Records
---
Amino acid sequence: MSAIPADIDLYAEIERLRKERKAVVLAHYYQEAEIQDLADYIGDSLQLAKAARDTDAEVIVFCGVHFMAETAKILNPSRKVVLPDMAAGCSLADSCPAPALAAWREANPDHLVVSYINCSAGVKAHSDIICTSSNAKRVIESLPPERPILFAPDRNLGAYLIRETGREMDLWQGTCIVHETFSERSLVELMAEYPDAKVIAHPECEPQVTRLAHHVGSTSSLLKYAAESEHQRFIVATEPGIIHQMERAAPDKEYIPLPGQDESCACNECPFMRLNTVEKLYLCLRDLKPEILMPETLRQAALKPLARMMDLG
Ligand code: 13P
Ligand code: SF4
């Protein structure tokens, strides 16, 4: 990666290159505010997957993490998909290697495998259907009631779904390193300090946290709830990058980020998401790399369970 000349206007160059490359910039809500402001489209995992599938841009610059960019490539293979930092992974995806999932499946041949979209293409390829946090309940409810279910890789989302749907599932024991840092104790303390605040939480949080929340949902659902609620104050139990859009949607309200257990660190920020920077976004548009590539057989195998999810609407 060559250095960025000191005399260039990064923002003007990004604009110029975006047009020249016929590129679309997609950003997840957990990206830093500057990247969100530069994006053509901001969304949760499902919204970004749909935007990637439907774009006619020649290049998709995916400002998110690897599994999201990989999903874009699976859904729209004729586009060049680039990710500003290839090291932008995800602890959930890392917790579940494809061969281990395949072995789990083989040991339970009568089970259906439902995988959260936060997983590799290899894991998707061994799954029957994919879900995101915004459609997970619908996905589970669409499955034949007599079939037992293996759910991977997020045990917290899985436990939340068991609670919500009443459907028993065997859970892979993966967690999100960001959402597991939220403790019941710090939440209870904040609730006592702000008794009028509504608690909004992502289902990747531990059950002790989601049980206390007034609303649990995907990033887009938390944003919608905060914007449309008549309440004025919210304790936000997810990555605080989302607060940028909350402040844009409803600037008069107050959003209190739930800190991680160690309040001296910024461990409620996703270290993977935050690897992307405006500088790396510029380099990515200029050099059209790092690029997401995968064998076509893997892509087709991963597409099947993704397409089943997309077909649910
Ligand atoms: P959403 O699909 O709700 O945006 O979640 C993605 C994610 O990685 C949350 O940690
Ligand atoms: Fe993965 Fe958690 Fe980061 Fe989301 S916040 S990308 S689940 S590590």
---
Amino acid sequence: MRILHTIADLRQALAGTTGTAFVPTMGNLHEGHLALIKLAKEHGGPVVASIFVNRLQFAPHEDFDTYPRTLGRDCELLRSVGCNMVFAPSENELYPQPQTCTVRPDPALADILEGRFRPGFFNGVCTVVLKLFNIVEPKVAVFGKKDYQQLMVIRHMVRELALPIEVVAGETARADDGLALSSRNGYLSEAERAEAVALAQELRAIGAALRAGRRDWAALEAEAVDRLVRRGWKPDYVAVRRRVDLLEPGADDRELVALAAARLGTTRLIDNLELSVPA
Ligand code: PAF
């Protein structure tokens, strides 16, 4: 496995290859990322993972400075699952000057839910992802469903900008108790880690309510928020949305997703669950 730190070296390493599958990450890898690499490997071409903590997608009060940088361990994990190349640029390599040319994704998709609570987040994500796409020139790019809205925003960008890239979605990897794996789970204390599973449980409770015939989305959302608050969480949102565009469901919509973001102590967790309304 080759580890490249500059755009020129990565381009040289990839020269003459075709069919690259790309997995962008911010490092501090866990089993969920490794599952994405395994999915990327199924496409047959070389697999490139990037590790870059992207300042552009963090607000000033967020955890950019403290986000764990664990390159040595990450590379060992990537090697163990057969990743071929790691692109780990410095900030100066990717942003030698302040990045003034940025991507503004569709506000209808990017300014709701996460975008409402993290203004500018998807501008930062799309800007770095487009830049990485232009560097790696992959045939396939793999993103996790854990970041459901991110996956949709990227798919939309790829479609609208006619990028010749197939976006592949990987399922959310979960711990035995159901907590979605996330690099930020490492911030949780032991007690918080035990409590954290409640977020996934609330999404499953919404699924059970749908199966029992309830269609009063707003009440279901409010009840989940209320239960989380009573357990000590600070929820940003619990939302039942259409899978196709993340808008509020109408009476005929069957393919839904429940999404949630909430703070436990100082750690902000997100999760989602795809749901199908029984006919
Ligand atoms: O999902 C992530 O880890 C990041 O948002 C991404 C896609 C690597 C862009 O920095």
---
Amino acid sequence: MIINIAHLYPDMLNLYGDRGNIIALTERMNARGIEVKTDAITMGKSFNADDYDILFIGGGQDFEQDVLLDDLKKGKDAEINKAIQGGKVMLAICGGYQMLGKYYKTYDGKMLEYMGALDFYTEGKPERMIGNYAFKTKEGIEVVGFENHSGRTYLGDGVEPLGTMIKGYGNNGEDGTEGVRFNNTFGTYSHGPILPKNPQLADLLISKVLENKYGKTELTPLDDDLEEKARKQVFKLYIK
Ligand code: GLN
């Protein structure tokens, strides 16, 4: 089995080690005998989403999100949209998550029109939402993460949240939601990165990828003793 990952804008959107998500996916698939290839899809490089099984986009600052906008609209937006609607697995973090929505109005009034692949919008405020946080997915996975954003995201009816808040701000600090979920697309504010800290979530994505490409596949359990100890420590220190 071989899985191909497209890493969008790895040189521009990589806050707080977001590329660790690719490493976690790769290591957890390699440990199960699955080969993984990752291509860097940078500015100026076109790509066809059909060539990939997973799309990944990290977070960035308002500045990078603005700089990328022209490039995004030269065709990458249509490919990403096609992948999302077609049920490919996609993980988008913070600034990258915001770019899947309709628009991001920055705290200083700049309007960034995004691709509108998903039904939500984001508006910034000067007070940033920062800290360790936790939320629970519909499968009952308690995810720990770290957030640092000015944007407040408001979901429309066409999508569901990735989780409900246990502690922290999440999408907007008001409605108790965190991130977005639609088909096999997962958007979240969690940097840090999220997948090495939350192996159950990493395996949820991997099982969806394998199901897409090879039909339902049982995942061999891995030894997550250290990861679980780390998660419990984060909960103890910051969450409960
Ligand atoms: N620029 C966005 C915000 O501040 C995203 C930041 C990030 O990716 N951490 O809301």
